[in-house]
């Protein structure tokens, strides 16, 4: 009987070990043209605030992190179909998204902004009546612009598949203004002095890691974010990517529960 039990126990242990190893690989989709959150270097590696965050989470939970380069809209289908475990790319928690996705606790308080070419003559949202607004398709900027189109009299809300084309068309006058995450816009404009943010749009948005609905690692990943906040690592990432003078909001420094938030 002992001869039978030992091989059976070994097989069971190997089986459990294989399952654990599979569970501890975290496949993360990233829209890698979204500085300072994530960008792909010429060498093919990923870098950015959220890249640092996810790599740190991987270290703390003992998971191997594998990044996949995807378009922004593709991230939602990939998590819904469970092709990937999680997605990053300054993704806002919304009630609609929570119906089909799960989110970790938030780690960034975000506002939107209206940006234009400095020569456009546009000084803010009040000047956008009859004008074309550029947005990243499926983003919260897209959602906001469509919801407020009648209020501000936008002639058109024009969707783009990537941030670069959205900004380029605004720079060239093919769109009159762009509505997007203020942090991403200001970061991009460091090397584009002719572009400027002319209006901040308070949104109450918070960014988090989006995961497949009820993912078994959701709590573990969110707990790691808590620890990263508590020991100051999150603040260090913030200073690295946004500058020492940029003051982090409450979501970056305060441990939060899982959403939804009221």
Describe, in short, the structure shown:
This protein has eleven helices and 13 strands. It is an alpha/beta fold.
At the third CATH level, what is the topology name of the largest domain? D-Maltodextrin-Binding Protein, domain 2
Radius of gyration: 21 Å
Helix content: 25-40%
- Number of helices, where a helix is a run of at least 4 consecutive DSSP H or I residues: 11
Could you tell me the mean pLDDT? 90
The largest sheet has its strands arranged as 5-1-6-13-7
Highest-level CATH class of the largest domain: Alpha Beta
- State the oligomer: single chain
Q: Can you identify the CATH superfamily of the largest domain?
A: Periplasmic binding protein-like II
How does the overall form come out from the CA principal axes? globular
Taken in chain order, the helices and strands follow as HEEEEHEHEHEEEHHEHEHEEHHH
Q: Biggest β-sheet, characterized?
A: 5 strands, mixed
Number of strands: 13
The secondary-structure class comes to alpha/beta
Instruction: Tell me what the CATH architecture of the largest domain is.
Output: 3-Layer(aba) Sandwich
Tell me the span between the first and last alpha carbons. Answer: 60 Å
Report what the structure shows.
The chain is α/β, with parallel strands linked by helices. The protein has 2 domains: 25-107 and 208-253, D-Maltodextrin-Binding Protein, domain 2 (3-Layer(aba) Sandwich); 110-205, Periplasmic binding protein-like II (D-Maltodextrin-Binding Protein, domain 2, 3-Layer(aba) Sandwich), CATH 3.40.190. 40% of the residues lie in helices and 25% in strands. It is built from 11 helices and 13 strands. Strands 5-1-6-13-7 form a 5-stranded mixed β-sheet, sandwiched between helices. The chain has a 5-stranded mixed β-sheet with strand order 10-9-11-8-12, with helices on both faces. Strands 2-3-4 form a 3-stranded antiparallel β-sheet, covered by helices on one side. β3 (38-40) and β4 (46-47) form a beta hairpin. α2 (49-61) crosses α9. The longest helix is centred in the N-terminal third of the chain and has 22 residues, at 2-23. Mean pLDDT is 90; it is low at 1-22.
